Amino acid sequence: MSSMKLGVNIDHVAVLREARRVNDPDILNALYVACANGADQITIHLREDRRHIQDVDAYNIMKHSTLPVNLECSINRDILNIVADLKPHRATLVPEKREEVTTEGGLDVVGHEDEIAYAIELLHDYIIPVSLFIDPTIEAVEKSKKLGAEMVELHTGAFANIYAMLNSSLSSSNHSLKELELPRNELSIRVEKSLAEITAAAKHAKKIGLEVAAGHGLNYHNVHEMMKIAEITELNIGQSIVARSVFSGLADAVKEMKRLTAR
Ligand SMILES: CC(=O)[C@@H](O)[C@H](O)COP(=O)(O)O
Ligand SMILES: NCC(=O)COP(=O)(O)O
């Protein structure tokens, strides 16, 4: 089986920083720690509303990263110009809605064909390979290939939500979903259906010559399901890693402050 690359998304460290608009936690510390502890790639998302990663972060990360940087961005022209200047190792085009809490679905590769084709062409002019963040459907995979992308990232958010509900671990599911009221056997059927869709999309993508990544909502409970899909060779994971680090690192943080404040 081919090896799996782990892309660590460090956006969520910047979410915490932006809550106070100070440089703490420092995104470059997150970069160094991820690079030194097994990440194969750094993933960041320069959102139009700059709710976490700022332009200066993206430039600093490009300068200091010892690993390839996968830069997620929308097809907004101003953003694309910044990405062209940053020259990341890859750009992943994602949909953005200003009012969303997080990326809610894949790119509409059919409805926004012309804009996406323009974005891919522009990025290719700057020798930046392009991945498209899409829903796991054969149609979206086919269209991504036709548009000239080198890679697709299959959106696993819907799978992750249903999986969390089935396993009664609501911590990582979207609490507003109507599926919360479904009986267990229905949830189980939906998890299997979702996994079958991701598997079929991954197989088809590989068959037609696309590299295949997956991401969104993947965590310590559900990631093993992605490991079973041989065609997926990269996972981009952020929220769950940063969320876990609050607890795996909080003990040391409290102890050190107690040491410094002991009389
Ligand atoms: C496209 C994607 O799945 C990630 O970029 C993720 O969306 C990052 O987190 P935010 O949605 O909070 O920006
Ligand atoms: N493209 C998905 C990503 O980068 C990380 O998503 P999440 O783990 O923060 O949900």
TrEMBL record:
Cytoplasm found in the keyword field: yes
Catalyzed chemical reaction(s): 3-amino-2-oxopropyl phosphate + 1-deoxy-D-xylulose 5-phosphate = pyridoxine 5'-phosphate + phosphate + 2 H2O + H(+)
Residues that hold 3-amino-2-oxopropyl phosphate according to the record: N9, R20, G217, G238, Q239
Protein residues bound to 1-deoxy-D-xylulose 5-phosphate: D11, H12, R47, H52, T102
Main EC class the enzyme belongs to: transferase
Keyword annotations from UniProtKB, A to Z: Cytoplasm, Pyridoxine biosynthesis, Transferase
Pathway: Cofactor biosynthesis; pyridoxine 5'-phosphate biosynthesis; pyridoxine 5'-phosphate from D-erythrose 4-phosphate: step 5/5
Family of the protein in this entry: Belongs to the PNP synthase family.
Protein name: Pyridoxine 5'-phosphate synthase
Encoding gene per record: pdxJ
